[in-house]
Design a protein that fits this description.
The complex is a heterodimer of chains A (about 350) and B (about 120). Chain A is an alpha+beta fold and about 350 residues long. Chain A has twelve helices and nine strands. In chain A, the strands form two sheets. Chain A has a five-stranded mixed sheet, sandwiched between helices. Chain A has a four-stranded mixed sheet with strand order 7-6-8-9. The longest helix of chain A is centred in the C-terminal third of the chain and has 30 residues. The termini of chain A are close together. Chain B has three helices and no strands. Classes of the chains: A alpha+beta (about 350), B mainly alpha (about 120). Bound molecules: zinc ion (2 copies).
Protein backbone atom coordinates (compact mmCIF):
# COMPACT_ATOMS: atom_id res chain seq x y z
CA UNK A 1 0.00 0.00 0.00
CA UNK A 2 0.91 3.67 0.05
CA UNK A 3 2.26 3.70 3.55
CA UNK A 4 5.88 3.35 2.64
CA UNK A 5 7.22 6.52 4.23
CA UNK A 6 8.57 7.39 7.62
CA UNK A 7 6.79 4.83 9.71
CA UNK A 8 7.20 1.32 10.99
CA UNK A 9 5.73 -1.11 8.44
CA UNK A 10 2.92 -2.14 10.77
CA UNK A 11 1.07 1.10 10.15
CA UNK A 12 -1.27 1.12 7.20
CA UNK A 13 -2.44 4.74 7.22
CA UNK A 14 0.13 6.80 9.14
CA UNK A 15 -1.17 10.07 7.66
CA UNK A 16 -4.39 9.88 9.71
CA UNK A 17 -2.58 10.03 13.04
CA UNK A 18 -3.77 13.55 13.86
CA UNK A 19 -7.08 13.51 12.04
CA UNK A 20 -9.98 14.39 14.33
CA UNK A 21 -12.66 11.94 13.24
CA UNK A 22 -15.00 12.53 16.16
CA UNK A 23 -16.06 16.01 15.11
CA UNK A 24 -16.97 14.88 11.58
CA UNK A 25 -20.65 15.08 10.71
CA UNK A 26 -20.55 12.96 7.58
CA UNK A 27 -18.39 10.78 5.37
CA UNK A 28 -17.53 13.61 2.97
CA UNK A 29 -16.04 15.54 5.88
CA UNK A 30 -14.08 12.51 7.07
CA UNK A 31 -12.60 11.93 3.64
CA UNK A 32 -11.93 15.66 3.21
CA UNK A 33 -9.78 15.66 6.35
CA UNK A 34 -8.05 12.47 5.34
CA UNK A 35 -7.22 13.78 1.85
CA UNK A 36 -5.73 16.92 3.37
CA UNK A 37 -3.63 14.88 5.80
CA UNK A 38 -2.52 12.49 3.06
CA UNK A 39 -1.47 15.25 0.67
CA UNK A 40 0.49 17.03 3.40
CA UNK A 41 2.13 13.75 4.34
CA UNK A 42 3.12 12.96 0.74
CA UNK A 43 4.19 16.48 -0.21
CA UNK A 44 7.88 17.35 -0.27
CA UNK A 45 9.38 18.29 3.09
CA UNK A 46 11.79 21.25 3.20
CA UNK A 47 14.67 18.78 3.54
CA UNK A 48 13.58 16.76 0.50
CA UNK A 49 13.21 19.95 -1.49
CA UNK A 50 16.65 21.10 -0.35
CA UNK A 51 18.26 17.81 -1.44
CA UNK A 52 16.72 18.24 -4.86
CA UNK A 53 17.91 21.83 -5.22
CA UNK A 54 21.43 20.75 -4.25
CA UNK A 55 21.40 18.06 -6.91
CA UNK A 56 20.11 20.50 -9.54
CA UNK A 57 22.82 22.98 -8.57
CA UNK A 58 25.55 20.35 -8.67
CA UNK A 59 24.50 19.10 -12.14
CA UNK A 60 24.14 22.63 -13.39
CA UNK A 61 27.67 23.61 -12.31
CA UNK A 62 29.23 20.49 -13.80
CA UNK A 63 27.47 21.00 -17.14
CA UNK A 64 28.38 24.70 -17.36
CA UNK A 65 32.01 23.90 -16.64
CA UNK A 66 32.08 21.69 -19.74
CA UNK A 67 29.66 23.71 -21.89
CA UNK A 68 29.88 27.39 -20.93
CA UNK A 69 26.84 28.45 -22.98
CA UNK A 70 24.58 25.80 -21.42
CA UNK A 71 21.63 26.76 -19.25
CA UNK A 72 20.23 23.96 -17.06
CA UNK A 73 16.61 24.26 -15.94
CA UNK A 74 14.37 21.95 -13.99
CA UNK A 75 10.88 21.28 -15.32
CA UNK A 76 8.11 18.74 -14.74
CA UNK A 77 7.04 17.84 -11.25
CA UNK A 78 10.22 19.18 -9.63
CA UNK A 79 9.36 22.65 -10.91
CA UNK A 80 5.71 22.41 -9.83
CA UNK A 81 6.42 20.63 -6.53
CA UNK A 82 3.90 17.96 -7.52
CA UNK A 83 6.38 15.15 -7.01
CA UNK A 84 6.17 12.09 -4.81
CA UNK A 85 9.14 11.26 -2.53
CA UNK A 86 10.52 8.86 -5.15
CA UNK A 87 9.76 11.11 -8.14
CA UNK A 88 12.27 11.87 -10.89
CA UNK A 89 14.08 15.16 -11.38
CA UNK A 90 13.65 16.35 -14.98
CA UNK A 91 16.25 18.75 -16.35
CA UNK A 92 16.54 20.38 -19.72
CA UNK A 93 19.68 21.98 -21.11
CA UNK A 94 19.47 24.95 -23.45
CA UNK A 95 22.61 25.45 -25.49
CA UNK A 96 23.31 26.71 -28.99
CA UNK A 97 26.65 24.94 -29.22
CA UNK A 98 24.95 21.63 -28.42
CA UNK A 99 22.27 22.29 -31.03
CA UNK A 100 24.93 22.38 -33.76
CA UNK A 101 26.67 19.18 -32.69
CA UNK A 102 25.77 15.57 -33.33
CA UNK A 103 23.06 14.51 -30.89
CA UNK A 104 24.62 11.22 -29.82
CA UNK A 105 28.03 12.84 -29.35
CA UNK A 106 26.44 15.50 -27.14
CA UNK A 107 24.69 12.90 -24.97
CA UNK A 108 27.93 10.94 -24.52
CA UNK A 109 29.85 14.09 -23.63
CA UNK A 110 27.16 14.98 -21.09
CA UNK A 111 27.24 11.50 -19.58
CA UNK A 112 31.01 11.74 -19.12
CA UNK A 113 30.70 15.19 -17.57
CA UNK A 114 28.18 13.92 -15.02
CA UNK A 115 30.29 10.88 -14.15
CA UNK A 116 33.48 12.93 -13.85
CA UNK A 117 31.74 15.28 -11.40
CA UNK A 118 30.94 12.17 -9.32
CA UNK A 119 27.23 12.92 -9.35
CA UNK A 120 26.67 9.32 -10.34
CA UNK A 121 28.73 6.32 -11.35
CA UNK A 122 26.47 5.03 -14.11
CA UNK A 123 24.63 6.91 -16.86
CA UNK A 124 22.16 5.41 -19.34
CA UNK A 125 21.95 7.11 -22.72
CA UNK A 126 18.64 6.83 -24.56
CA UNK A 127 19.46 8.35 -27.95
CA UNK A 128 16.71 6.83 -30.07
CA UNK A 129 13.65 8.01 -28.13
CA UNK A 130 11.34 10.75 -29.44
CA UNK A 131 13.03 12.98 -26.87
CA UNK A 132 16.62 11.68 -26.43
CA UNK A 133 17.78 11.77 -22.82
CA UNK A 134 20.43 10.64 -20.41
CA UNK A 135 19.29 8.98 -17.17
CA UNK A 136 21.06 8.30 -13.90
CA UNK A 137 20.58 7.76 -10.18
CA UNK A 138 22.44 10.24 -7.98
CA UNK A 139 25.03 8.98 -5.50
CA UNK A 140 23.78 11.56 -3.03
CA UNK A 141 20.07 11.12 -2.25
CA UNK A 142 19.58 8.16 -4.66
CA UNK A 143 17.23 10.14 -6.90
CA UNK A 144 16.47 9.52 -10.58
CA UNK A 145 17.48 12.32 -12.93
CA UNK A 146 16.53 12.65 -16.63
CA UNK A 147 18.31 15.25 -18.77
CA UNK A 148 17.19 16.29 -22.25
CA UNK A 149 18.73 18.89 -24.55
CA UNK A 150 17.00 21.87 -26.19
CA UNK A 151 13.42 20.83 -25.42
CA UNK A 152 11.97 24.16 -24.33
CA UNK A 153 8.38 22.90 -24.21
CA UNK A 154 8.73 21.26 -20.82
CA UNK A 155 9.48 24.56 -19.14
CA UNK A 156 6.53 26.34 -20.74
CA UNK A 157 4.31 23.43 -19.64
CA UNK A 158 5.62 23.68 -16.08
CA UNK A 159 4.83 27.39 -15.99
CA UNK A 160 1.30 26.70 -17.18
CA UNK A 161 0.80 24.03 -14.51
CA UNK A 162 2.02 26.54 -11.93
CA UNK A 163 -0.47 29.00 -13.39
CA UNK A 164 -3.31 26.54 -12.78
CA UNK A 165 -2.06 25.86 -9.25
CA UNK A 166 -1.97 29.58 -8.44
CA UNK A 167 -4.75 31.20 -10.45
CA UNK A 168 -7.71 28.81 -10.24
CA UNK A 169 -9.39 30.54 -7.39
CA UNK A 170 -10.17 28.14 -4.56
CA UNK A 171 -8.88 25.18 -6.59
CA UNK A 172 -5.11 25.19 -6.03
CA UNK A 173 -4.92 22.76 -3.13
CA UNK A 174 -7.67 20.65 -4.73
CA UNK A 175 -5.59 20.35 -7.90
CA UNK A 176 -2.52 19.42 -5.87
CA UNK A 177 -4.57 16.84 -3.94
CA UNK A 178 -6.03 15.16 -7.02
CA UNK A 179 -2.62 15.00 -8.70
CA UNK A 180 -0.78 13.63 -5.65
CA UNK A 181 -3.47 11.02 -4.98
CA UNK A 182 -3.79 9.94 -8.63
CA UNK A 183 0.00 9.76 -8.95
CA UNK A 184 0.48 7.77 -5.75
CA UNK A 185 -2.35 5.46 -6.78
CA UNK A 186 -1.01 4.83 -10.29
CA UNK A 187 2.59 4.75 -9.10
CA UNK A 188 1.80 1.95 -6.70
CA UNK A 189 0.41 -0.09 -9.62
CA UNK A 190 3.18 0.74 -12.08
CA UNK A 191 0.79 2.73 -14.30
CA UNK A 192 2.53 6.09 -14.16
CA UNK A 193 5.13 5.68 -16.90
CA UNK A 194 4.27 6.52 -20.48
CA UNK A 195 6.78 4.04 -21.92
CA UNK A 196 4.88 1.16 -20.29
CA UNK A 197 1.53 2.54 -21.51
CA UNK A 198 0.64 4.36 -18.30
CA UNK A 199 -0.32 7.96 -17.68
CA UNK A 200 2.49 10.49 -17.47
CA UNK A 201 2.65 13.25 -14.93
CA UNK A 202 1.58 15.97 -17.37
CA UNK A 203 -1.46 13.95 -18.47
CA UNK A 204 -2.49 13.40 -14.84
CA UNK A 205 -2.28 17.14 -14.18
CA UNK A 206 -4.40 17.91 -17.25
CA UNK A 207 -7.02 15.32 -16.26
CA UNK A 208 -7.25 16.90 -12.81
CA UNK A 209 -7.43 20.47 -14.19
CA UNK A 210 -10.16 19.45 -16.64
CA UNK A 211 -12.11 17.62 -13.93
CA UNK A 212 -12.13 20.75 -11.74
CA UNK A 213 -12.98 23.06 -14.66
CA UNK A 214 -15.84 20.85 -15.87
CA UNK A 215 -17.35 19.97 -12.49
CA UNK A 216 -20.83 21.52 -12.50
CA UNK A 217 -20.62 22.72 -8.89
CA UNK A 218 -17.27 24.43 -9.50
CA UNK A 219 -18.26 25.78 -12.90
CA UNK A 220 -21.31 27.40 -11.36
CA UNK A 221 -19.21 28.86 -8.57
CA UNK A 222 -21.29 27.04 -5.94
CA UNK A 223 -18.47 25.36 -4.05
CA UNK A 224 -14.92 26.07 -3.04
CA UNK A 225 -12.98 23.04 -4.30
CA UNK A 226 -10.49 23.28 -1.44
CA UNK A 227 -13.27 22.72 1.08
CA UNK A 228 -14.67 19.67 -0.72
CA UNK A 229 -11.60 17.49 -1.19
CA UNK A 230 -13.24 14.23 -0.11
CA UNK A 231 -16.21 14.30 -2.44
CA UNK A 232 -14.05 15.61 -5.31
CA UNK A 233 -11.54 12.77 -4.98
CA UNK A 234 -14.40 10.24 -5.11
CA UNK A 235 -15.91 12.03 -8.11
CA UNK A 236 -12.54 12.18 -9.90
CA UNK A 237 -12.29 8.38 -9.72
CA UNK A 238 -15.97 8.17 -10.61
CA UNK A 239 -15.67 10.30 -13.79
CA UNK A 240 -12.50 8.77 -15.22
CA UNK A 241 -13.17 5.23 -13.94
CA UNK A 242 -16.85 4.76 -14.73
CA UNK A 243 -18.34 7.48 -16.93
CA UNK A 244 -15.93 9.32 -19.24
CA UNK A 245 -16.22 8.18 -22.87
CA UNK A 246 -12.56 7.78 -23.90
CA UNK A 247 -13.54 6.60 -27.37
CA UNK A 248 -15.46 9.71 -28.40
CA UNK A 249 -14.32 12.60 -26.24
CA UNK A 250 -11.06 14.54 -26.03
CA UNK A 251 -10.03 17.00 -23.33
CA UNK A 252 -8.90 20.61 -23.63
CA UNK A 253 -8.03 22.77 -20.62
CA UNK A 254 -7.86 25.96 -22.74
CA UNK A 255 -10.64 28.58 -22.90
CA UNK A 256 -11.86 27.75 -19.41
CA UNK A 257 -12.24 24.05 -20.14
CA UNK A 258 -13.91 22.30 -23.10
CA UNK A 259 -14.30 18.83 -24.58
CA UNK A 260 -14.13 17.98 -28.26
CA UNK A 261 -15.15 15.06 -30.46
CA UNK A 262 -12.08 12.96 -31.28
CA UNK A 263 -13.49 12.09 -34.71
CA UNK A 264 -14.14 15.72 -35.70
CA UNK A 265 -10.62 16.59 -34.56
CA UNK A 266 -9.06 13.79 -36.58
CA UNK A 267 -7.64 12.27 -33.38
CA UNK A 268 -9.71 9.12 -33.60
CA UNK A 269 -7.66 6.01 -34.33
CA UNK A 270 -9.93 3.12 -35.28
CA UNK A 271 -7.22 0.64 -34.26
CA UNK A 272 -6.82 2.23 -30.84
CA UNK A 273 -10.27 3.56 -30.23
CA UNK A 274 -10.17 3.85 -26.49
CA UNK A 275 -7.04 5.95 -26.13
CA UNK A 276 -7.32 9.08 -24.04
CA UNK A 277 -6.86 12.33 -26.00
CA UNK A 278 -5.62 15.46 -24.23
CA UNK A 279 -4.82 18.58 -26.21
CA UNK A 280 -1.41 19.93 -25.16
CA UNK A 281 -2.03 23.28 -23.42
CA UNK A 282 1.13 24.65 -25.08
CA UNK A 283 0.44 23.28 -28.56
CA UNK A 284 -3.14 22.54 -29.71
CA UNK A 285 -1.90 20.29 -32.52
CA UNK A 286 -0.30 17.87 -30.07
CA UNK A 287 -2.11 15.06 -28.23
CA UNK A 288 -0.12 14.49 -25.03
CA UNK A 289 -1.72 11.22 -23.99
CA UNK A 290 -1.85 9.24 -27.24
CA UNK A 291 1.14 7.18 -26.08
CA UNK A 292 -0.72 5.90 -23.02
CA UNK A 293 -1.82 2.66 -24.65
CA UNK A 294 -2.63 1.08 -21.28
CA UNK A 295 -5.43 3.58 -20.58
CA UNK A 296 -8.04 0.79 -20.58
CA UNK A 297 -6.30 -0.78 -17.61
CA UNK A 298 -5.94 2.61 -15.92
CA UNK A 299 -9.66 3.16 -16.35
CA UNK A 300 -10.56 -0.24 -14.87
CA UNK A 301 -8.25 0.35 -11.94
CA UNK A 302 -9.78 3.77 -11.23
CA UNK A 303 -13.26 2.21 -11.42
CA UNK A 304 -12.20 -0.55 -9.02
CA UNK A 305 -10.85 2.01 -6.58
CA UNK A 306 -14.04 4.03 -6.83
CA UNK A 307 -16.08 0.92 -6.02
CA UNK A 308 -13.94 0.15 -2.98
CA UNK A 309 -14.03 3.76 -1.82
CA UNK A 310 -17.81 3.96 -2.02
CA UNK A 311 -18.20 0.64 -0.21
CA UNK A 312 -15.87 1.86 2.53
CA UNK A 313 -17.70 5.20 2.65
CA UNK A 314 -21.04 3.38 3.14
CA UNK A 315 -19.57 1.37 6.01
CA UNK A 316 -18.27 4.56 7.66
CA UNK A 317 -21.65 6.24 7.12
CA UNK A 318 -23.27 3.31 8.91
CA UNK A 319 -20.87 3.73 11.82
CA UNK A 320 -21.57 7.46 12.00
CA UNK A 321 -25.31 6.94 12.11
CA UNK A 322 -25.14 4.22 14.75
CA UNK A 323 -22.94 6.53 16.82
CA UNK A 324 -25.51 9.30 16.43
CA UNK A 325 -28.21 6.99 17.67
CA UNK A 326 -26.09 6.12 20.68
CA UNK A 327 -25.65 2.53 19.65
CA UNK A 328 -21.90 2.71 19.55
CA UNK A 329 -18.86 4.28 21.17
CA UNK A 330 -16.94 7.24 19.73
CA UNK A 331 -14.87 6.67 16.61
CA UNK A 332 -11.72 7.44 18.48
CA UNK A 333 -11.12 5.67 21.77
CA UNK A 334 -11.67 1.97 21.42
CA UNK A 335 -10.97 2.01 17.71
CA UNK A 336 -7.62 2.59 16.11
CA UNK A 337 -7.97 5.91 14.24
CA UNK A 338 -6.35 4.25 11.24
CA UNK A 339 -9.37 1.98 10.96
CA UNK A 340 -11.37 5.01 9.85
CA UNK A 341 -9.13 5.66 6.88
CA UNK A 342 -10.83 5.43 3.50
CA UNK A 343 -7.81 6.11 1.31
CA UNK A 344 -5.91 3.14 2.70
CA UNK A 345 -8.61 0.84 1.31
CA UNK A 346 -7.58 1.48 -2.29
CA UNK B 1 -18.45 -4.75 -17.53
CA UNK B 2 -15.68 -3.28 -15.44
CA UNK B 3 -17.30 -0.79 -13.12
CA UNK B 4 -18.01 -2.53 -9.84
CA UNK B 5 -20.80 -0.09 -9.04
CA UNK B 6 -22.89 -1.55 -11.78
CA UNK B 7 -23.71 -4.71 -9.89
CA UNK B 8 -24.48 -3.26 -6.50
CA UNK B 9 -27.79 -1.85 -7.64
CA UNK B 10 -29.28 -4.36 -9.99
CA UNK B 11 -30.58 -6.70 -7.29
CA UNK B 12 -34.33 -7.09 -7.57
CA UNK B 13 -35.28 -9.31 -4.61
CA UNK B 14 -37.05 -6.73 -2.47
CA UNK B 15 -38.26 -3.28 -3.34
CA UNK B 16 -35.27 -1.01 -3.58
CA UNK B 17 -36.74 2.47 -3.32
CA UNK B 18 -34.13 4.47 -1.48
CA UNK B 19 -35.64 6.36 1.46
CA UNK B 20 -32.95 9.02 1.22
CA UNK B 21 -33.29 10.03 -2.43
CA UNK B 22 -36.17 7.99 -3.88
CA UNK B 23 -33.97 6.22 -6.41
CA UNK B 24 -34.79 2.65 -7.41
CA UNK B 25 -31.19 1.95 -8.31
CA UNK B 26 -29.81 1.32 -4.84
CA UNK B 27 -30.68 0.51 -1.24
CA UNK B 28 -30.73 3.26 1.33
CA UNK B 29 -27.44 2.19 2.91
CA UNK B 30 -25.74 2.45 -0.49
CA UNK B 31 -27.11 5.84 -1.42
CA UNK B 32 -24.62 8.21 -3.12
CA UNK B 33 -26.10 11.03 -1.03
CA UNK B 34 -24.26 9.46 1.92
CA UNK B 35 -20.97 10.72 0.46
CA UNK B 36 -21.86 13.20 -2.31
CA UNK B 37 -22.21 16.01 0.18
CA UNK B 38 -20.93 19.46 -0.79
CA UNK B 39 -19.87 22.33 1.40
CA UNK B 40 -21.39 25.35 -0.39
CA UNK B 41 -20.15 28.95 -0.49
CA UNK B 42 -22.29 31.95 0.47
CA UNK B 43 -24.00 34.21 -2.07
CA UNK B 44 -21.32 36.89 -1.63
CA UNK B 45 -18.51 34.40 -2.07
CA UNK B 46 -20.14 33.06 -5.19
CA UNK B 47 -20.38 36.52 -6.72
CA UNK B 48 -16.69 37.10 -5.96
CA UNK B 49 -15.69 33.77 -7.52
CA UNK B 50 -17.67 34.40 -10.71
CA UNK B 51 -16.48 38.03 -11.01
CA UNK B 52 -12.81 37.15 -10.58
CA UNK B 53 -13.14 34.48 -13.26
CA UNK B 54 -14.87 36.83 -15.68
CA UNK B 55 -11.90 39.21 -15.41
CA UNK B 56 -9.58 36.48 -16.66
CA UNK B 57 -11.77 35.44 -19.53
CA UNK B 58 -9.79 37.16 -22.27
CA UNK B 59 -6.35 36.22 -20.94
CA UNK B 60 -4.50 33.58 -22.94
CA UNK B 61 -3.20 30.46 -21.27
CA UNK B 62 0.25 31.04 -19.81
CA UNK B 63 -0.70 34.67 -19.10
CA UNK B 64 -3.33 34.33 -16.39
CA UNK B 65 -5.92 32.47 -18.47
CA UNK B 66 -5.37 29.46 -16.22
CA UNK B 67 -7.64 31.17 -13.71
CA UNK B 68 -10.61 31.30 -16.06
CA UNK B 69 -13.29 28.64 -15.80
CA UNK B 70 -16.04 28.83 -18.43
CA UNK B 71 -19.71 28.31 -17.65
CA UNK B 72 -21.03 26.20 -20.54
CA UNK B 73 -21.94 22.59 -19.79
CA UNK B 74 -20.06 19.91 -21.73
CA UNK B 75 -20.88 16.25 -22.18
CA UNK B 76 -18.33 13.61 -21.15
CA UNK B 77 -20.17 11.10 -23.36
CA UNK B 78 -20.43 12.74 -26.80
CA UNK B 79 -18.09 15.70 -26.40
CA UNK B 80 -20.71 18.33 -27.30
CA UNK B 81 -21.83 21.27 -25.19
CA UNK B 82 -25.32 22.13 -23.98
CA UNK B 83 -25.89 19.17 -21.69
CA UNK B 84 -24.03 17.09 -19.10
CA UNK B 85 -22.78 13.57 -19.71
CA UNK B 86 -25.35 11.72 -17.62
CA UNK B 87 -28.17 13.35 -19.59
CA UNK B 88 -26.72 12.64 -23.04
CA UNK B 89 -29.12 11.16 -25.56
CA UNK B 90 -26.99 11.86 -28.65
CA UNK B 91 -25.05 8.61 -28.53
CA UNK B 92 -25.37 5.52 -26.33
CA UNK B 93 -23.41 5.32 -23.08
CA UNK B 94 -20.94 2.51 -22.50
CA UNK B 95 -22.71 -0.69 -21.62
CA UNK B 96 -21.00 -0.67 -18.23
CA UNK B 97 -21.87 2.89 -17.24
CA UNK B 98 -23.45 2.75 -13.78
CA UNK B 99 -27.19 3.43 -13.67
CA UNK B 100 -26.86 5.85 -10.76
CA UNK B 101 -26.29 9.49 -11.55
CA UNK B 102 -22.80 10.99 -11.29
CA UNK B 103 -21.61 14.52 -10.46
CA UNK B 104 -22.10 15.41 -14.12
CA UNK B 105 -25.89 15.36 -14.25
CA UNK B 106 -28.84 17.75 -14.19
CA UNK B 107 -29.86 15.79 -11.09
CA UNK B 108 -26.75 17.08 -9.35
CA UNK B 109 -27.05 20.68 -10.57
CA UNK B 110 -30.64 20.76 -9.32
CA UNK B 111 -29.54 20.06 -5.76
CA UNK B 112 -28.07 22.57 -3.35
CA UNK B 113 -28.91 26.10 -2.17
CA UNK B 114 -28.31 27.85 -5.49
CA UNK B 115 -30.83 25.92 -7.54
CA UNK B 116 -33.56 28.20 -8.77
CA UNK B 117 -36.46 26.26 -10.30
CA UNK B 118 -37.80 29.50 -11.81
CA UNK B 119 -34.62 30.28 -13.73
ZN1 LIG C 1 -30.54 7.04 -2.55
ZN1 LIG D 1 -23.79 14.20 -25.03
Amino acid sequence: DWAYRRQPPSRKAPWVRDVDWDSCNNVAEMLHREVKAFVNYMSPTPVEDEIRSLIVEHVSKAVQMAFPDAKVSPFGSYATKLYLPSGDIDLVIDSDSMAYSNKTTVLHALANTIKRARITSKVTIIAKAKVPIIKFVTNFGRLNVDISVNQGNGIVAGNIVNGFLQDMRGCGFALRSLVIIAKAFLNQRGMNEVYTGGLGSYSIVCLAVSFLQMHPKIRRGEIDAEKNLGVLVMEFFELYGCYFNYEEVGISVRNGGTYFGKKQRGWYDSYKRNLLSIEDPTDPSNDISKGSYGIGKVRQTLAGAHGIMTTTAFLRAGMLSSRREGRSYPLRGHNDPEDMSILSSI
Amino acid sequence: RTCPNRYSRTATEDDLDCDRCGSRDHKMNECPTLWRIYQYVTDEERTLILDSRAEKRKLPIGKGGEGYIASAEWCYNCGNSGHLGDDCDEIPHFSDTPADYSAFSAHNTMSGPFFDPAA
